[in-house]
# Entry
Amino acid sequence: MTIDTDDCVIQFENVGLRYGLGPEVLQDVSFSLQSASFHFLVGPSGAGKSSLLRLMYLALKPSRGLVTLFGRDIATTPRRQLPALRRRVGVVFQDFRLLPHLSAFDNVALPLRVAGAREDEVRRHVVELLSWVGLKDHLDARPPTLSGGQQQRVAIVRAVIVRPTLLLADEPTGNIDDKMAMRLLHLFEELNKLGTAIVIATHNENLVERLDHNRMRLDGGRLEVDPAVQGPAPAVAANLRQSPGNAA
# Structure
């Protein structure tokens, strides 16, 4: 089944999720996200934010309801076609999931190389973005030698460098100070200006209050979406505009 909805990146209709025989952790969740939308996903610990993100990047299947990603009904899409959909979704995981045997440079370069970018382009874009997040002197460092905050920045750059159609970030500022957190959020805003839909799950209400974006609130397994006027994003990380791995 294909949903003919202009600019709809992802849509949930009456989605429920339970683990095993337990109670539903998400109940009757319905929303749709358009391209170039920007939402903070907020709510108390245990509200189901990480579970909702896992449904969005197809790591989980809903117990009931309809999920469509890029116009495709996930329940009826052939399994062999799902990896191509996942490649259009960038994810910043709470546990980073960097490859420990690769340098920071090579971790970030990996999605560009998979996309077939020329090596000179790979080097230019990777060095520029890692430098922009303060890691110019750590290009050759492997993840086990980096601090948690440094690993987090590497993971974020890896997720944004190919300009995904949808970016999902689970507590992306949890291990860094507010100054660097704002710098990284401005990077997300620049990506958003280029058309990427973004959902950031966070407990940091201070950062949410400082940026004027829509909010999705989870509480008791139920979701509410509060509209807000989006202000202009500052011009940062302009090299994303010419990234050789840009998603269509």
Observations:
- Confidence is low (pLDDT under 50) at residues 228-238.
- Residues 8-242 form a domain with the Rossmann fold fold (CATH 3.40.50.300).
- The longest strand covers residues 8-18.
- The longest helix spans residues 178-193.
